[in-house]
Amino acid sequence: MVDKTLLAAKVAAIRDAVQRIRAVLPLDRETFISDRTAREIVTLNLFVALQECLSLATHWLADEGWDIPQSYRDVLRTLGEREVIPRELAARLASASGLRNLIAHQYGVLDWARIHQIALTALDDLLAFCEALARRASS
Question: What is the pTM assigned to this prediction?
Answer without folding.
Answer: 0.91
